[in-house]
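Methods — Computational structure assignment.
A single polypeptide chain was analysed. Its primary sequence is given first, followed by the predicted tertiary structure written as structure tokens.
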Amino acid sequence: MKTAKFTLLMCFVTLLSFGNISTKERAALEALYSATKGDQWRTSWDMSLPVNQWYGVVVKDDKVIELNLEFNNLRGELPQELGDLKHIKKINFFRNEITGSIPTTISNLKSLESLNVAFNRLDAPIPQEIGDLESLRYLKLFMNRISGELPESIGQLTSLRTLELYNNQLTGELPQSVGNLSKLKELLLSSNQFSGKLPDNLANASDLKVISLFDNSFFGTLPNSICSLNKLEELVISNNAFYGNLPTDMANLTNLKVLLIGNNDFQGELVQLKTQLPSLQQFDIAEVNQEGVVVSLDEEEDDN
């Protein structure tokens, strides 16, 4: 009888210490702690406390739904066990020292809505498995050293609103599948090594408000289909290798506030654009900002 009581007591204590989450989720958090030198974090975890009391961990209905560890000195590579947090909706690792790649097991995170690993030291390609994140709305990987091409599977993220990949080392052409992102509002790819022509079907992303492609090696003419993006407020394509005449229907972009097209080889009466676009506040056909700053007039939603 005493043995049975002791066993029940230990089970109760174990549940309390886990914060009622599953053993697999706790193991995933412990793997993250170990892989990123948790004992050196600015705010570390006291493993003797319930998980719902660990810094940056949000638990709801006995499930881990958020990890908010921005500015916390995480160092090292993200573990494959991260994919065991299958109920998580938000991961925020902004401004740390994370290296390596996004683990392929991220494909398990079907509920993930926001992934922010910006301002770290990721240097491997974006995995094809990123396309399995069917609920993802915000993907922010800017200010890393990410190499390789943008995977074609990016077009499977049909819930995506924001794609921020600027200031990396991404190469190759923009995949045609980007045109499948019908809910996309912000496409920020500046300061990479992208090349090739812009896909005609980019205009299928009809909710686009911001396109920033500054400082790449895109070339060719600007597709006329882009003029159907009547919600577009910012078009920043300076410092590329575009050429020829601008699309004849540019005047249709009546909501355009920022148009930066300098340091390309466009032809024609470019100055007239300023009078044709009534909402234009910032217009540049010659000068180029050499610091690669992404121009944005909208306040960013609080989804870090």
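Note: The chain has one domain: 61-284.
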